[in-house]
Amino acid sequence: MNIIFNIIMLVILVPTVLFLFLYEYPAKWRDKKYIYGVLNRTEFKEEKTAERVDEIVSTCRKNAKWLLFISLILMVLFCFIPDFTIRIIVWTTFVFLDLVLMFVPFSKGNSELKSLKRELGIASKKGVVYTDLKGAGSIHALKKTSILVPNIIATVFFLVALLNDIGVVKLVGLLPGQFPYQARIMTGMTGALLFIGFMLIPIALMMDGIRNEVISEDSDVNANYNRAKKKNMANFMVLFAWINTIVIIIMMIMMCIWDNQLIYLALYAVYMFAIMIGVFFYGKRQKEIEKRYKKETSVEIDDDDNWILGQIYYNPDDKRLNITKRVGVGSTVNMAHPVGKAIYIASALLVIFTFIMLIYVGVLSKTPMEVRLSDGNLVCHQMKDDYVIPISSIDEISIESDSGKLKLRKEAGYDMPPMNKGKFNINDEGGCITFLDLDTKNYIIISAEGKKYYINAPSDEETEKIYNEVVNQISD
Q1: 12-39 b/e (C-beta count within 10 Å ≥ 16 → b)
Q2: Number of DSSP helices (H) and strands (E) in the chain, helices first
Q3: pLDDT class of 39 with cuts at 50, 70, 90
């Protein structure tokens, strides 16, 4: 599990940071439409000014290259963190911080280029929005059926998984060695991917309906340019939808044959890598389109001041919600729009919630799991009393050794090795209440009030002591 987790993180993050570096910090700026989110103007290419721009671009790219190098080194080092819980917390925190830090040189370059514009006496046209009335709202490239068909197929497979879960049909268990709990896992995993597929539909329609960009006084040029860009985006969204559906199908087939979490995680890694490849080709095609229409561009919207640090669009005079990104893939939202403000607030709250949960998981992982007897009850405690079992309700109790041989699959709860707490499938028996530290070999099995408990104390000696005390109280 540890090795696969490391591989997945590397497969996802290494291409991501490389893509950010290559896309955000190009070595040659003269043929780019934007430099660090600032419109590339003819004034920038004049001899003395070009030297200044060269210096800004070179310095920012050098700083970004150092950040990239340090990021890659840290990613490798993270793989050797022995504690799995701490490793997950470190990786998650790193993802947030690294993506922010990779944009620091970009933001610095954006600020310096805006200062250079002011020195040259170039004023941005803040609030100006151009519209080609002849082609307004008429350019679309997405065929709705092309994005609906893969999601319809994915829905069919999800419904089959759901019917299997509730026992109407039988998929899991057709082959020897398959167990009922896999049906629930299959439903959950395919449902999560189907949700992603459903989210793609409104995003694809929104991108296809985004207001056409004006680059020329010739309406035909504008139409062809926007059609090419929207077609490129539509192809990517349809590809994403098909990748999503194919992974659902493959996952269901695999789950009917194998019961191996490592295989499922590996499939997710392949899934993310396939999407990265799609993003790469989308970006490559986008560059080709910009290069193709560069010579035909006669209208340039210089609204640099509406772009905070070159990344965040804020324009109260623009009624659009979605705007094509200046740098990067896809679109962004207008932060001045009421919905845009709500999106940014929700995003900030999500980040805050994520870090709160990381802190909670970190504290939980370092809090010992305690088992004690109190007022005729067997109490399982970790930060709070998780389970209180009246000794008088115990029907059966036994003690076993070698907890490492237990086959645990989480149904609901917490499973950060070596701690497992919640409802688990244990040795192919579902619904078992678990309070186990797998570093402790001895464990107690209790049947009480129609429930089965697997519990242990922080050490083998304490576990055996608790068992003997419970047995004595039952005998009395």
Answers
A1: bbebbbebbbebbbbeebeebbbbbbbb
A2: 10, 15
A3: confident
Q: Residue 303 corresponds to which tokens in the numbers above? A: 């609204």
CA dist., res. 381 & res. 216, Å (int): 69
Q: Which of 258, 385, 328 is nearest to 103 (CA)?
A: 328
Tell me if residue 288 falls in helix, strand or coil: helix
Q: Is the distance from CB of 388 to CB of 372 less than 8 angstroms?
A: no
pLDDT at 354: 85
Q: What is the pTM of this model?
A: 0.71
Span 138-184, pLDDT tens digits: 678 889 999 999 999 999 988 888 887 776 766 655 444 445 566 67
Note the pLDDT of residue 130: 63
Report DSSP state, residue 1. Answer: -
DSSP 136-191: TTT-----HHHHHHHHHHHHHHHHHHHHHHTTSS--TTSSTT--THHHHHHHHHHH
How many Cβ atoms are within 10 Å of 244's Cβ, its own excluded?
23
Q: Of 103, 16, 12, which Cα lies nearest the Cα of 63?
A: 103
User: Does pLDDT of 261 surpass 80?
Assistant: no
**Strand 429-437 to 451-455 pairing:** parallel
pLDDT tens column, 371-386: 988 888 999 998 888 8
- Closest by alpha carbon to 140, among 238, 231, 237, 215? 231
Report the alpha-carbon distance of residue 116 to residue 50 in Å, rounded. Answer: 11
Nearest to 154 by CA among 183, 195, 185, 184: 195
d(CA 421, CA 436): 6
Q: What confidence category does residue 73 fall into, taking pLDDT thresholds of 50, 70 and 90?
A: very high
CB 293 within 8 A of CB 211: no
Phi, psi of 371 (to 5 degrees): -125, 130
DSSP 8-state assignment for residue 305 = G
- Residues with Cβ within 8 Å of residue 142, at least 6 apart in sequence: 204, 205, 207, 208, 230, 233, 234, 237, 238
Question: Are the C-beta atoms of residues 428 and 406 closer than 8 Å to each other?
Answer: no
Listed residue (167, 201, 187) closest to 248, CA to CA: 187
What would the mean pLDDT of 11-40 be, rounded to a whole number?
84
Euclidean distance between CA atoms 162 and 123, whole angstroms = 60
Rounded CA gap, 187 and 158, in Å? 7
For helices 219-255 and 261-293, angle between their N-to-C axes, nearest 10 degrees: 170
